[in-house]
Amino acid sequence: MLYKHQKALGQNFLINKAIAAKIVAAGEVEKTDLVLEVGPGKGALTDFLIAASGRVMAVEKDIRLANGLREKYNNQPNVEIIQDDILKFKPTYYLLLTTNYKLISNLPYSITSPFLSKFFISGKIEKPKLAVLMVQKEVAKRLTSLPGEKNRGVLTVLLQSCCQVDYLFTVGRENFQPQPKVDSAVIKIAPRKINLEPSFIAVVKAGFSAKRRKLANSLAGGLGITKASAIAIVQQSGLSVNVRAEDLTTEEWQEVWYNITK
């Protein structure tokens, strides 16, 4: 498939078949599985998903790539190419329901945060039963960071609050065409059977609203409460008044949220 990539869409095509096979293996894909793939590009990962799964639904925003994939897989009965923007895509329209599909993709770099928010945090759509995603290495490190690490942020806390997130392996930039300026990594996300309350999301965002400052100061500014009230909430949660947002575990964030909303 001859094609000039579109930089605006974050297109970097995987060219290493061994990496594609490793991603599919990490997803424990079986013949009974329905798999949603985002940004199939030229089909490097799709080839292995078709062979391993029962059915593949591949969502491609670029109409030229989508048409090329339809031609490539014209004789494959277990793959459907959908030309759509995944950020506007409605899984239930295609009967993608919780526990009945897996999400395995080499995500376009530019959509990682809104994509993760939509599929795992918002609670507005059906989550996959398992996801294996390739993202920028820096993003993968951030999403799997531990309390106390400086790269821990809002998305990290929210995603870890509703999912088990694991860093699987690094993928060097030389495995893509055109070659990006950064390395990638593959993560596994196993959603838990919980939905985050909007008020919890608001509290976490407030806590990180002035990162590197003490949590009480951030909560005061982010929630519009007095500093004295914020300090009291932090202390009621069993935390030091000197603690910062990135220091908290997801359980401690739940405690802070409880003491704010009780």
UniProtKB/TrEMBL annotation:
Keyword RNA-binding among UniProt keywords: yes
Family annotation (CDD domains): AdoMet_MTases
InterPro entries: KsgA/Erm, rRNA_Ade_diMease-like_C, rRNA_Ade_Mease_Trfase_CS, rRNA_Ade_methylase_Trfase_N, rRNA_adenine_dimethylase, SAM-dependent_MTases_sf
Catalytic activity: adenosine(1518)/adenosine(1519) in 16S rRNA + 4 S-adenosyl-L-methionine = N(6)-dimethyladenosine(1518)/N(6)-dimethyladenosine(1519) in 16S rRNA + 4 S-adenosyl-L-homocysteine + 4 H(+)
Annotated positions binding S-adenosyl-L-methionine: 12, 14, 39, 60, 85, 106
MF annotations from Gene Ontology: 16S rRNA (adenine(1518)-N(6)/adenine(1519)-N(6))-dimethyltransferase activity; RNA binding
Gene3D superfamilies assigned to the protein according to its UniProt record, in alphabetical order: Ribosomal RNA adenine dimethylase-like, domain 2, Vaccinia Virus protein VP39
Pfam families hit by this protein: RrnaAD
NCBIfam families, per the entry: ksgA
PANTHER family on file: DIMETHYLADENOSINE TRANSFERASE, DIMETHYLADENOSINE TRANSFERASE-RELATED
Protein name: Ribosomal RNA small subunit methyltransferase A
Organism encoding this protein: Candidatus Berkelbacteria bacterium Licking1014_2
